[in-house]
Write a structure and sequence with these properties.
Length: about 190
């Protein structure tokens, strides 16, 4: 069983913001595989299904970004999912809009959701997909920027990165993560 976690903030006001690309990627996977995200437990919204004959759990923590690890840990413990079988999808300021990067481990890089997951799992060694949202321009503060919506010009690139993230998760269900990284980190 694999656990695919998309980070974001609950609430309509955050729905299409930069900080919520993880939620959007999980929604894309749910849509593709007819997985209903209709269970609210473990401080999150989740659903179970099958992708390429692999049972998966899709999770959107509802704790707000800074406490995401509480939801992740609770669900991992309940389903007895190993840290080797989780992947976290989240926004990254250090990548341009439209780019994704897959990693097997790493620091939080200043991302509070990742800090929380590292704290609650006790390790930095878990798979992740970073979706580029770029850095704020013209002196805009980071919190205002990540809680803002994408510009109309950015939307096509964002859609591509969401689709690529979902593609990578699908591939991971029946390939090694190293193979998936080699395929998706080329661009």
């Amino acid at each position: 069983m694999k656990l695919i976690i998309g980070l974001g903030n609950p609430g309509r006001q955050y729905a299409q913001t930069r900080h919520n690309v993880g939620f959007i990627a999980v929604d894309e996977l749910a849509h593709r595989h007819t997985i209903s995200l209709d269970k609210e437990k473990f401080k999150g919204l989740f659903g179970t299904g099958v992708i390429h004959n692999e049972k998966v759990v899709l999770l959107k923590p509802l704790t707000y970004m800074n406490l995401s690890g509480e939801s992740v840990r609770s669900l991992m413990d309940y389903y007895q999912i190993s840290i080797d079988d989780i992947i976290v999808i989240y926004d990254d300021l250090d990548l341009p809009v439209g780019k994704i990067r897959l990693r097997t481990k790493g620091s939080a890089g200043g991302h509070n959701g990742m800090k929380s997951i590292i704290q609650h799992t006790g390790t930095q060694e878990f798979k992740r997909i970073r979706i580029g949202v770029d850095r704020p321009q013209n002196g805009m503060k980071v919190p205002d920027y990540v809680l803002g919506k994408f510009s109309p010009e950015e939307i096509p690139d964002v859609v591509d990165s969401i689709k690529a993230s979902a593609d990578a998760c699908e591939k991971w269900t029946n390939h090694t993560f190293l193979d998936v990284m080699n395929l998706f980190n080329r661009s």
